[in-house]
Amino acid sequence: MNNRIIDFHCDVLYKMLYEGSIHFDREDELDVTLPRMIQGGVGMQVFALFLEDSLISGPPRFSQVLRCIDLLRERINALPGVEYIRYREDVERWEQNADCIGALLSLEGVDGLEGDMVYVRTAYELGARFVGLTWNHANWAVDGTMEPRQGGFTSKGRQFIRECDRLGLLIDVSHLNENGFWELLDLTERPIFASHSNSAHVLAHPRNLKDKQIQAIIERNGRIGVTFVPHFIKAAETVTIDDLIRHIDRICELGGEHHVMFGSDFDGIDRKIDKLEHAGQYVHLLEQLDKRYSSTFVKQIAHTNALQFLKTNLPAKDE
Ligand SMILES: [Zn+2]
């Protein structure tokens, strides 16, 4: 079971920002901790930077973005064996060192960038490589999935996409409303990805992707991280690993066997999938996948699909 899992979404930084004393190297203060990553065979984790309106006074600000980046650097990346992954070369080094734990930075919602391209460039300079445009609501760029008007991009939002293209910031479409999704495909020609979304064919939820959206992501050679949020898997009291696998099946039916990966949303969820309650339990998911799929595919979803995406799309150091 040596698949070195890559997970494209967790909310550890959110918890660290609002609960000051949390430690990443202690066993069980978080769903994703260093010991749990090692236990579950998780070799690389994308850390999302999410600022919750109701927990901060006033609108999200860039100073809070900086605070989160500082938390990542001081409390996670500074731990022995953890490497900050920003460039292709970092990924290649990670591949060669089986004990290395990789950490990547993503923004979940551009709110804290305040519509200022100087802040966008600064976040990139500090290592942010992915950017989710919205959380559930509207912001200065575009509307989120739960915003009633389901609006597309503002002119500032379009300018932002041009700046992302220029810098090489990769766009995450989880949380983006469907109109915005289709408009985005006209605004950029680069691959897009959904870090933590499931199939709307299996469960019709606004946070899930319709078949047409999944196909469009596949056509761009983007990626879809299936997520462990019970609400997006099945409308039932208890949700199992088998229920999650139905979403994986659907993405594969649409031709996504080289595009599907994991985006757990650990530390962003209160309810959990039975037997898949923290990063240390990834082994249970791989066991179930092994029963249904070829070992080649299990390796792809755990590791290779995400890895290829990073190697193709992260900037080279000398660029
Ligand atoms: Zn989310």
From TrEMBL:
Descriptive protein name: Dipeptidase
PROSITE patterns per record: RENAL_DIPEPTIDASE_2
Matching Pfam families: Peptidase_M19 (PF01244)
